[in-house]
Amino acid sequence: MRMKLTGQIIAGIALLILLPAGGPATAQQLSAKEIIKKTDEKFNGELSGYSVMSMTIVRPSWQRTIEFKSWALEDDYALTLITAPAREKGQTFLKRGTEMWSWNPAINRLIKLPPSMMSQGWMGSDYTNDDILRESSVVEDYTHTFEGEEEIDGRMCHKIRLTAKDDADVLWSHQLWWVDRNEFIVLKAELYDEDGYLVRTERGTELKTLDGRFIPTTIELIPAEEPGRKTILSIKEVKFNVKIEESFFSQQNMKTIR
What we know:
The chain has one domain: Lipoprotein localisation LolA/LolB/LppX (outer membrane lipoprotein receptor (LolB), chain A, Clam), CATH 2.50.20.10. By secondary structure, the protein is mainly β. Strand 11 and strand 12 form a beta hairpin. The chain has helices at residues 13-17, 32-44, 129-133, 251-256; strands spanning 48-59, 62-73, 77-84, 92-96, 99-104, 109-112, 142-152, 155-164, 174-180, 186-192, 198-210, 213-223, 230-240.
């Protein structure tokens, strides 16, 4: 969800949860690293994809829902179009490599997001621009150890600890993943900062088959120290391996895509 769950989740949110591959398999005899690799490949194994999603931002005294479409190509390109509510409709976000732009038709302005904005929440949510752009590998940048098995929502999971390597440029010092033993889907992830404090929890629920793939269609991000706050992503539609070229992900297309 980037649950890549945590390699994990819009201008690249499509990259973070949009791209699963492969079918059911068993995890018998696999090492912790091999399970994480299979899980990562399941969520990042396709060349391209298209999704329709909604994102509900929940706060103690209010909540609002944003609807959007996303297109993604490999790990480097993503384009997201806001379709609702009316006041944000038509706004777009473009990711190309490690750079990100936003286009606001109301003020006819294209903005390249500077480093100072990377820690800000995307569209006011609990997902930051840095979540979207930070490139890291849950397979190569972490070591992996089993911490037992636990049941999540009636499904038995491997509990695996991912510990950041000393030279890795990653956001999290360590993560805990609960991986479904049969489907290689992350049903829960906990993300910890460099001081070992829990920053947030991510949950994948409402498992359904969309475009022939069995995936979580609801993803919740819950900040650890902010009671009453969370962000809920709902996947309405996905298509995998759509025909799309790199030229689609252009600043000009940001202004005309519908």
